[in-house]
Write a structure and sequence with these properties.
The protein has 757 residues and is of the alpha+beta class. It contains 23 helices and 19 strands. InterPro entries: AAA+_ATPase, ABC1_TM_dom, ABC1_TM_sf, ABC_transporter-like_ATP-bd, ABC_transporter-like_CS, P-loop_NTPase, Type_1_exporter.
Length: 757
Amino acid sequence: MQHHDPVDTPEGEAGAALKSRLTAAENVLATLTVDLDGELRFGNGLLALTDSRLLARDPDGSWREWALANAGQVLLLTDHAGVGTLDFLDDSALLGRWRYTLAHQVAALRLLKLFEQRAASAAQVSAAAAEAAERDDIAAGETEAQKPPSTWVLLRLGRFAKPYRKQLITGFLLTLASTAATLVPPYLTIPLMDDILIPFQNGQQIAVGKVVMFLSALLLSALAGWALGWARTYLLALVSERIGADLRTTTYEHLLTLPLDYFGGKRTGDLMARIGSETDRINVFLSLHALDFLTDVLMIAMTAVILVSINPLLAVVTLVPLPFIAWMIHVVRDRLRTGFEKIDRVWSEVTNVLADTIPGIRVVKAFAQEKREADRFREANKYNLQVNDKLNKTWSLFTPSVSLLTEIGLLVVWGFGIWQVARGSITVGVLTAFIAYIGRFYTRLDSMSRIVSVTQKAAAGAKRIFDILDHVSNVPEPANPVKVDRIKGQIEMKGLGFRYGSRAVIRDLDLVIEPGEMIGLVGHSGSGKSTLVNLICRFYDVTDGAIKVDGTDIRRFAVADYRRHVGLVLQEPFLFFGTIAQNIAYGKPDATREEIVAAARAAHAHDFILRLAHGYDSLVGERGQGLSGGERQRISIARALLIDPRILILDEATSAVDTETEKEIQKALDNLVKGRTTIAIAHRLSTLRKADRLVVMDRGEVVEVGPHDALMEKQGAYWRLYQAQLRQADDEEEAQEQRSEVSAVLHTHAAHPAGQA
């Protein structure tokens, strides 16, 4: 019996490789092209469902397969922001995961449907899928897993330590040498006691030469310990600071690569806390406590070897408290681990209040909500205090308990040692050296127990940092990007579709924009205008169809290279803290002063800039405080002009200003759109009369396309929008006239009070 291929069996190398793996009686039920790898980079993989097994070809060319005999097996299909995920699980583990662009969603749904049809029962499939969702929330692309951080997460910092391995090896050797130097003095107490002091008490003369020799050895060991300790502390502190700086930089750089939807689900204060305080905490752990921990381990190990070499029986007695201390550390560590992560989350709430209130202080004061915001901060701070108090109860009991056990251990050694001296098994010098070594031993043991707290804090911080670093952008970079030198600006959208989760926002959209053409996007709120602009900017990737610029799919361009050719002017312009010149030159930092001034002139911003105290070197407050809305907008237009983009996006660029300011901005926009492919979204339809064509959108679909006059004659969707806006304008004008009349009456009444007319 020959196998039968489905209609959508892939062609090419992958299809041929699949056919070669099928048995004679095996039927292919469905296939899915897997065009993304584990890091969401484009690849060439394949998933095939047959009547007996599931076969997968990974993007690297290797094959995997699973027999479909287990009733507990389940396929879980999820999608998020343009990326589909198909998980294959059984009752105990995740067997395989494949990611693909949603252009292949139909094939994925078909494969899932056929898989479920051959399952034992729909109930079993549903239960397994629910368990799978609990095991892996990240597959749904919604939230980070709230699992308690493991101490082993600190080992992942090793990749940041790699560049400094030579310095770290040197630091380890210095630590070893300095620890050995500090262990010399207790050993010298044996001959000092047995050969000098005790014989002197028995009437013998003190050998001055021996005393000088032993004291010199003590001095040399102290100096060596100091020099080696200083060298290792300084060296490892330098290394840890650099590791911390690299960690901050890497986290911030990775954060900048993440898509807009990631930031939509995060609070600014939380992200600031992660990059700031969490990396500082890790840095302190690496520069101070990790070094102390290493020293403690070496000290305990080397002390134990010396104790066993002096007297094995007494050394065994010394180790009596160790099992109890180890048990306490194990119990407390679990509580600290979860507690510190909770503290981190609570502290991020405190910083969130600050991040919300300080930038919005004008709104807070305008609505007299200072007390409300102070109460919010007080409540967040109070909760932070409660969580810390709860954790401190555990820690305050643990630390004295360890100290008590070490004191008891010391008493046991004293008692056993005195008994050994009385029996003549050891000398007083040996007991004295033992006590000196044990003092160091228990001190280091106590120090190690205290480091548990710092370690768990660092582990909690590292987990929150790696939650950012492990997040993969759903706007993937192409494996072999097409180079972008200069583009003409033709934009072609064919069969375009986009969904937020399961909600379709753009549906089957076809549109071609010619180079240099100005397109006006109009429609009711929620019709998909801003989403379409975001797709053209590639802030998100389409789920169906493609967007092509000059005939090339924009997903084949490197993201940064492509966006250099796209200028964006938003409704609410964002200015950074800095000078006017720096804000204009943001997209082209190496621009000359002449280029900056030319861009400002074209944006009709030059005159008002010269009226400022320091002209182009005048400082702009955070988010453009100190400038009017129209002035900020003209600076943002100058910023777009300076990079000379071939594609220009105007998103409600004049909706937030008055009529006079709008005229000034419109003059600047007229200069900006010349010779560029322009897509403009405008609230006032009258501002789009200069557009070559108007594209009317409704519920994610294009319902009308054409010039203003032609669409008005058609009396369709655009005509209705225009008429509605005219009626609104007439109502506003009438209301303004009524307000003017009332104001005039009140003014007359104030000028001629009753009885004086």
